[in-house]
Design goal:
Length: 258
């Protein structure tokens, strides 16, 4: 059930260059699933008009809390980065369809691939997969060492490879370079990140179960405004679309045109 509520800020800190971890308390946490996101209203009448979509990184149902990790880049997220513990934030969620945890059985191997700000939603997914007895392997890509975050947190759950474009941390290059080098075996692949990365994974593993989470600009977040549509793969009419906010953000590889 989608809820709109004022969530209390419990903790807020910068964990990498312009990357912030925000922990809030609210009823939304009780409904959230891996891969879903929330829509955050920042500022009052004079603040940015549109809400900002932010992925849910981890869920603490026992304490009614969830953690959001985001990059402070635009007007809204820079303003959000100034919020401190004790303040309240207007949040709508949980939104979208998340990762299909049930697609991977206990004893199987799940490969989780993330790029940049696409890394956060993979963390709760990894936690839940581990809880059901799945072996997880992570391949995470960043621009440079100062942008790397959550390496230790992922490593506590399973084998973790880090790639940076400039080679200042981990392997030099992209996540696809690590995949080619390591030749990792897996049953299911889950990924979130920039479109070029998702395209490479979709074409690179045509015979595997692959689930891709799309990053897209959104207006309403609930499928009403059609601001985040993408075409259906194989549709000859040119009129079949999926909404990233409500039909996704997670799609099976081959379902939509990237």
């Amino acid at each position: 059930m989608i809820t709109k509520e004022l969530c209390a800020v419990v903790r807020h800190e910068e964990i990498a260059d312009s990357i912030f971890r925000l922990t809030v308390e609210g009823n939304i946490a009780s409904e959230a699933l891996p891969g879903q996101f929330v829509h955050v209203k920042i500022g009052g009448a004079m603040g940015p008009l549109l809400r900002r979509p932010i992925s849910i990184s981890s869920i603490d149902r026992h304490n009614g809390a969830m953690t959001l990790i985001y990059r402070a880049g635009g007007q809204g997220t820079v303003l959000l980065s100034t919020f401190t513990a004790g303040m309240e934030i207007d949040i709508l969620g949980p939104l979208g369809n998340g990762f299909k945890v049930g697609e991977t059985a206990a004893g199987e191997v799940a490969l989780l691939v993330g790029g940049g700000i696409g890394v956060p939603p993979l963390y709760e997914l990894s936690r839940q997969l581990v809880q059901k007895g799945v072996k997880v392997v992570h391949v995470l890509g960043f621009q440079t060492a100062s942008a790397v975050f959550y390496e230790k947190e992922f490593a506590e759950l399973g084998e973790t490879f880090i790639a940076t474009v400039d080679g200042t941390f981990g392997e030099k290059g992209f996540v696809t370079d690590v995949l080619r080098k390591e030749q990792l075996g897996f049953n299911t692949l889950y990924a979130c990140g920039p479109v070029p990365m998702l395209k490479a994974l979709e074409t690179g593993y045509p015979d595997k179960k692959v689930f891709l989470s799309l990053e897209e600009r959104m207006g309403c977040g609930i499928g009403a405004c059609f601001a985040c549509v993408c075409r259906v793969q194989g549709d000859m009419s040119g009129h079949a679309y999926r909404k990233v906010c409500s039909d996704g953000p997670v799609f099976r590889a081959g379902e939509v045109v990237l």
